[in-house]
């Protein structure tokens, strides 16, 4: 069985989060398929890997110190489900709200499908209403 590479999808997911934490878009090139499908894109997000990087840039522009901690991670077949806690400080525009300098903490849930060691499909939902409340937006 030489030459067979076993890929741990949970490890790849953790590496994606670590790349986001480091603001390392280049690291995503080996972790995301070029044509990854983001099922919950931000407005005007480009398709594929470049769109995912666009999301990361937008998130890190609003919260330059954005850091995720994986709280729960479950894998079954080609999919990984995760609960993650994000923390950051509001130093850039977010959803039309000017920087406040306020710290935020919010949860997100991801379901990611993998193929050949790369994420190929991404579903995500985050408590963005909670973020808006924490930065004092009128909601």
What features would you describe in this structure?
The chain is an alpha+beta fold. It has a single domain (9-134), classed as Nuclear Transport Factor 2, Chain: A, CATH 3.10.450. Helix content is 26%, strand content 36%. It has 3 helices and 5 strands. It has helices spanning 9-22, 48-62, 128-134; strands at 32-38, 67-76, 79-89, 103-115, 118-126. A 5-stranded mixed beta sheet has the order 1-5-4-3-2. The longest helix is centred in the middle third of the chain and has 15 residues, at 48-62. The chain is globular, with a radius of gyration of 16 Å.
| Integer count of domains | 1
Number of separate strands: 5
Terminal CA distance reads: 58 Å
Mean pLDDT: 95
**Helix vs. strand class:** alpha+beta
Strand order of the largest sheet: 1-5-4-3-2
CATH architecture term:
Roll
Q: Characterize the biggest β-sheet.
A: 5 strands, mixed
Which consecutive residue ranges, at least 5 long each, have pLDDT under 50? none
- What is the fold named in CATH at topology level? Nuclear Transport Factor 2, Chain: A
Q: Share of helix among residues?
A: 25-40%
What is the CATH class designation?
A: Alpha Beta
Number of helices: 3
Shape: globular
Strand residue content:
35-45%
As a whole number of angstroms, the C-alpha radius of gyration is 16 Å
